[in-house]
Amino acid sequence: QVQPVESGGGLVQPGGSLRLSCAASGNLFSSYTMVWYRQFPGKQRGLVASISSDGRTVYVDSVKGRFTISRDNAAKSVYLLMNNLEPEDTGVYYCKGPNLVWGQGTQVTVSS
Fold first, then answer.
1. Is the dihedral of CA 9, 55, 88, 105 positive or negative?
2. What are residue 37's DSSP bridge partners?
3. What is the rounded distance in angstroms from the CA atom of residue 31 to the CA atom of residue 19?
C-alpha cells in the first residue's frame, strides 16, 4: 500500500489562492483516476474534484469556476489550483487513487 504526500496548504485570506500538490506513485499512475477530497471539521471527507486518465475533470458544484485539477503523469503528481478561496473552503485536503491509502492531507485555512 502506497501513501501519497500532499502539500501546499496554508493560511490564506478570503479571495486568495493556493496550489496543492500530491506526489503519488505506481507504474500505472497514468491510467488511474485521481481525486481530491476535503474534510471539514467534524465532517466526513467529501469529493472536491477528480481527473481521469484522459484528462476529463469533475468538480463539486461549490468549487466550479474557482478550482482547477490537473495532473503530470511523468511526475506521478496531481494538483489542485484553488482561486478565490472562501472561508467555507477551510479543511484538510487529501488526494486519492485506486492504489493509494489515505495520506496525511494538507490543511487549508481561509481566514482574515
1. negative
2. 47, 94
3. 23
Distance CA 75, CA 73 (A): 5
Measure the CA–CA gap between 72 and 2, rounded to whole angstroms: 18
Residue type, 1: Q
For residue 88, what pLDDT band results from cuts at 50, 70 and 90?
very high
pLDDT tens digit sequence for 10-59: 999 999 999 999 999 888 899 999 999 999 989 999 999 999 999 999 99
Query: For residues 2 and 99, is the Cβ–Cβ distance under 8 A?
Result: yes
Q: Nearest CA to 93 among 78, 79, 105?
A: 105
Are 26 and 99 contacting, i.e. CB atoms less than 8 angstroms apart? yes
Residue carrying the nine cell digits 496550489: 19
